[in-house]
Amino acid sequence: MSKNLEISKLLDFYGILLTDKQREIAEYYYNDDLSLGEIAENLDISRQGVRDSIKRSETVLFEAEEKLSLIGKSEILKNSLEAIKRNITAISVENEMYNNSAISHSTEKILNELEKLSEI
To answer: Can you tell me the mean pLDDT for 55-75?
Structure first.
């Protein structure tokens, strides 16, 4: 994963841990792809101040993921949900031969619950 995409993902998960100014600068830099000079001009601060803020923000974000592993856990959960969906779908397809209404009802309920989880 590219560093910009990685930091952008870290911002989504842990951006709340940054100060408002740090978050704003990091979002300009990583999400809006503005240069240090452009950010400095927009916020009326020095280019070096922008750079320092970005480096401090990166440190906070990487430390948060190292301690909490929310992105890693999220990926594991996403993969597990996809595997469950594939298996439930296979059961539904197999059940079409037998037309067991209890199985159809249960697989439909599970798929609905998976859909709710995928929206989170």
So the answer is: 96
